[in-house]
Structure formats: C-alpha cells, structure tokens
Amino acid sequence: MRPDTPAETVDHTAEAARLERTAGLYPEDSEALLLRAAAHLELAGDRPTATALYDRLLSSTDGLDNPHLVRALKASNLWEYGHEAEARAIIEGVRVASPRDPAPWVIVAEALESHDELEAAHDTFTEAVRLLLTDVPQPPQPTHPLLFGRHRVRRMLGKSHDEWDALADTVHSLPITLDELHDPKRVWSLGSENPVELEAEITRLRAELGAYREALSRPFPVAILHWPATELSELLEAYPTLASEYPSHETHLATIESALRELSSSGTPNLGIVTGTVPSYEAFAASELSSPGDATLLPQYATTLAARGRAVAWPPQQGAACWCGSGRIYGECHGSQE
Asked: Using CA atoms, how far apart are residues 1 and 19, in angstroms rounded to an integer?
C-alpha cells in the first residue's frame, strides 16, 4: 500500500495477500511482512485468518526477532472474536516474560483496557513503566505510549497524579493537555447549541485524532542506502563501475548524513536509513533483470529494502548509537557534523 493511499479505499484482503507473497520472496523479512499482513486481515474482519498468521510465525523454526510482540498481537486479536480465556492466558504469559520492548506491553495493556479491565490495564502499564523507565533520564519515544496509556487509565480510575503522570505530561507535545484529553467526566458538546463549547470540543477531538494517527501511523519512509565498510569494499571489488558513486567509505557516510539533513531541512518527513548487503543487492538486480553494476538500481534497491521494513528511523533518538555502526553515540559521531 502506498503511503498516500486513503485508508478507506484499501482492499485489506488483497493487501494481506500481497504481503504474504512478498514474505515468500524475502524470508529474512517474513516476520515484519506477515505482521503487516495480519494487521490488514484484522482490518478486513478476518480475525481467524489473522490468528493463523500469528500461529504460523510462532511455530517458525527460524526464531523470531520479537516473539512477545507476536503473542501480544495474537492475544488482542483472539479477544476481539470471543476467545477471551486464551487471550488472558497469553497476556499473562507476556507479563511474566517481562519483555524489554515496550510494544508488547502497550498491546496487552490496551487489550485489557478496551475490555474494561481497567485495574489490570493499570497494573500492566505500571509494570512496564517501572521495568523500562526506572532510572532512565529521558524516556525514549517508543515508551511514550506506555506513559500516555497509564495516564489515561488512571484518570478513568480516578487516581491522583504521581511522578509517572508528571513524566507523561513532560513528553506530551499536543496543544491539549493530557488531563483534558483523558478527562472521563468532560462534557461532550458536539450536540450543544453553544458555539464556544462546540469549537472547544472540536479542538479536543482534533488533538485526540492527531494522537491516534501519530501512534498508529507507520508511513513509508524516505530511505537512504548505507553500505558498511566491508560490504562496500566487496561491492566495489565486484562492480568497479560503481566507484564513481562511492569514492570512499568516509565520503559515503558523510554524504548520507548531509543528504538526510538536507531532506529534513526541506520539510521531508519520516526519513530513514537502509543497510545493504552484496548478496541481497545481487538478488535484487537479478529480479530486475539488470546488472548490479548499473548505478540506477541503487535507489530502487533502497526503496525495496524500505518496503520490506528494513528502514531505521533517522535521526537516532537522543543517546542512541550512530546509524553508521561505529558504536559511538550519534551526537558524538555523525550527529556532531555542522
């Protein structure tokens, strides 16, 4: 699905089938592709088939990058079509496993919340926040939904603010405060004849919609191709015609950073970096019936890697390692470039 395709015009069943076919072509990316396919099946209302995809992933002999995420998604999906007992058992298993990735925690906590299990949802959010954010100076962006979800559930339970709620307020960036967004007693004024109340409620709804869109959006990234030093050496040895594209590895890295900064300053959103390998590139060239020495294939290869979920967001989060693989913090490596 293209990023500019309106959601209401998407044939989710057809998109799921396309992603399954792509997963067959690129087994190394099957986990990410099949998860996207399952999401489309859920949107199409075909929840049993989505569960079958989750089971297919969990039974894979190759191992998964994030099995807890797959289990959490399966539990959430099962509960939506009547398999509550199995869903609860899986959710408990995820909690006991205490994954270090915030995504499974968010999914199981929101599943509990959506089925009015507010105390259990609160406990789950709190468990995750304590595990992942204790003694962390600045909450990473992927953990923000944990803080926001916990704040929301606490407001519904009538609990007073605590230090984690205060932290949620500091990372919240929308013009409407979290207290207002999550106020369970707020007066819904869409039916009011008072234009001031109506306008205020529309503003609140727009802010909420923006928050949901931000949380759910996984737009197609504008990705720049990165070659690690060993891969670039192998590439240029095999295909010397590409030397004009890559005078040196240092120049290659500097060009990536400057290109991304230029795109960012021009207002281009959702930038990313994809890392190439020579075997993968050669396979791509063969699929295009072209020579790997053809430089025009390079941007197409980058786009294909991004479409397979291989893009890493740029710039890295504060305190994260640099995208170049040096092992240094981004701010002390390519992030320090003027």
From this structure: 10
